[in-house]
Amino acid sequence: FQPKIMAGRKVVLTAGPTFEAIDPVRGITNSSSGKMGYALARALARAGAEVVLVSGPVALPAPAGVRRVSVRGALDMRDAVFAALPGAEVFIGVAAVADYRPQQRAEHKIKKAEGGLELVLTPNPDILAEVAALPNPPFCVGFAAESRELDAYAESKRRAKGLPMLVGNLVQDALGADDNEVVLYDDNGRYPLGRAAKDELARRIVEHLATLLAGGEMR
Ligand code: PMT
């Protein structure tokens, strides 16, 4: 039995990597399996939320009770997020969005030639920063995957984007694994949630989120 602590709330979240096409067969991507974001979507649905999961390409089935919108590149992900936002009280960015995309996508397969190949990359929009900067934004939760100095980098990302809550994890713990170790950051401090299966950590993250939404103090 799980209490419906998110009943009546709509949540939009992103998960997985983005895939930025170079030509019809090649692209650049990040190495996210989607497991953390899908676990969170599942936990939110179990807690009674209406969930829209905007997902990059992953090999996972859509969680029960969740509306999944499948996308490839960061630009598609941004469009799908903004289309889903009306009525959403919460936005969560779990996706590992590629920071850059090829400036041009070749219409046909690029042929192998002598010498090297130069790719010109252009920055992708920061979806979470754009949502957080809306005039009347939903409650925005960020994720930060770092390879060192988690506290310092995670808190600086939270402050830079003006987020009320952020989930920090280490890439070496998080990427592709079934379990993880996370620390939550909000305006009141830092909350280590320990090491556990991603489903269990997702349940703890939803508990913290629901308490903040209800205006409660964390212990
Ligand atoms: O999928 P798994 O294998 O389970 O791995 C989970 C995970 C490690 C991918 C996940 O737990 C995680 O930490 N995701 C965030 C990855 C990250 O470090 O993102 P970032 O530092 O590039 O971005 C910070 C925040 O801004 C994130 O919430 C991200 O979704 C968001 N962002 C970033 C760039 C961008 N262009 N748009 C965004 O919305």
TrEMBL record:
According to the UniProt entry, its GO molecular function terms are: FMN binding; metal ion binding; phosphopantothenate--cysteine ligase activity; phosphopantothenoylcysteine decarboxylase activity
State its role.
Catalyzes two steps in the biosynthesis of coenzyme A. In the first step cysteine is conjugated to 4'-phosphopantothenate to form 4-phosphopantothenoylcysteine, in the latter compound is decarboxylated to form 4'-phosphopantotheine.
Keywords of the record, alphabetical order, are: Decarboxylase, Flavoprotein, FMN, Ligase, Lyase, Magnesium, Metal-binding, Multifunctional enzyme
Paste the cofactor note: Binds 1 FMN per subunit.
Catalytically driven reaction(s):
N-[(R)-4-phosphopantothenoyl]-L-cysteine + H(+) = (R)-4'-phosphopantetheine + CO2; (R)-4'-phosphopantothenate + L-cysteine + CTP = N-[(R)-4-phosphopantothenoyl]-L-cysteine + CMP + diphosphate + H(+)
| Top-level taxon in the UniProt lineage | Bacteria
**Protein name (Swiss-Prot/TrEMBL):** Coenzyme A biosynthesis bifunctional protein CoaBC
* Span list, region Phosphopantothenate--cysteine ligase: 11-219
Family classification? In the C-terminal section; belongs to the PPC synthetase family. In the N-terminal section; belongs to the HFCD (homo-oligomeric flavin containing Cys decarboxylase) superfamily.
Q: Some GO term, biological process aspect, for this entry: which one?
A: coenzyme A biosynthetic process
Q: Where is the signal peptide?
A: none
What cofactors does the UniProt entry give for this protein?
A: Mg(2+); FMN
DNA/pantothenate metabolism flavoprotein C-terminal domain location: 6-211
Biological pathway:
Cofactor biosynthesis; coenzyme A biosynthesis; CoA from (R)-pantothenate: step 2/5; Cofactor biosynthesis; coenzyme A biosynthesis; CoA from (R)-pantothenate: step 3/5
According to the UniProt entry, what is the EC number of this protein? 4.1.1.36, 6.3.2.5
GO CC annotation terms, alphabetical: phosphopantothenoylcysteine decarboxylase complex
List of residues binding CTP: 99, 109, 125-128, 143, 157, 161
Instruction: Give the coiled coil ranges.
Output: none
* Keyword match NAD: no
